[in-house]
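Deliverable D5.2: sample structural annotation.
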Amino acid sequence: MNSIFKTFFLLIFSTLLLTGCSYSQVKENEVVQAEGKDQFVVWALADIQPVTSDHKEAFEKAVDDVNENIKVANIAIVAGDIVEQTDEKDFDWYVITKKRSYIKDFYEVIGNHDLKPDKGKLFRKKLRNDVQYSVTSGNLLFIFLSDEARGKATTITDKTFKWWKNLVTQNQDKIIIVVSHAPLDGSGISFSSIEERKVKNSKRFVEVLKDYNIDIWLSGHLHLPHAFNNTITMQPELNNADFIHISSIRPELLGLKRSESRFLYFNCGTDKVIVRSRDHDKKEWQDDLQLGITVSRKIRCNE
């Protein structure tokens, strides 16, 4: 990249980076002490959507990084946009690559790019037919919401919303984690109020969250670096729900944004979750972005 343009991008980018965080900071030794004890570990990634061979290599390197350097991860969550355009070869490549991982259980949702141009038929054929679904582990309830219509915003039908609402209201004794491609308008995540960058008609969900508890809402779609302002937020008026943006696995901004994902460490027997950011290019933790959040009840990993 031309050095002048690179300097220009860096100046703009640096003004938007996170300079502080209201969450409790977690030191490296606290994470090390927790490792090896009872934990449920989630690898959260999004927006693989390869256009070039370098983009494919980014996901392959991320899988290798996890295999080589992350001791334990119980499940992987992919918050949509696995491919750029629905092409059978790209889905086959994704399936082959994820099978290289020691993590056996990958849970994906459909993103807007996964709907192009076949309305998600290949996603259903290659990954899972039931695209609105839930998974329970211990007292952790994961609810997965796929995009249901073409367009940049995430569309969730009223039928799916009612299914989601019933799950939330009937499982208030559990720790609830929701996964969608785009963020919720009202989450406070940067740019989540822009029409093309959010869940359509988010107000339906917000009204439920005012009266019922969900603990964590994970989303991708924005491709923002984890260091960007307001990529993790907590909303007191929504029963202290925590909203977490997952950056893209593929590198962005002409190489200025690296391949990133997050890891969530649910510490069994406590109400604490450690959220860590991983730079897969450097194969390093981004320790300054490491933080702890508190969920609504003690975590029971084995039942």
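Annotation notes: Confidence is low (pLDDT under 50) at residues 1-29. The longest helix spans residues 53-69.
The annotation will be released with the project's public dataset once the embargo ends.
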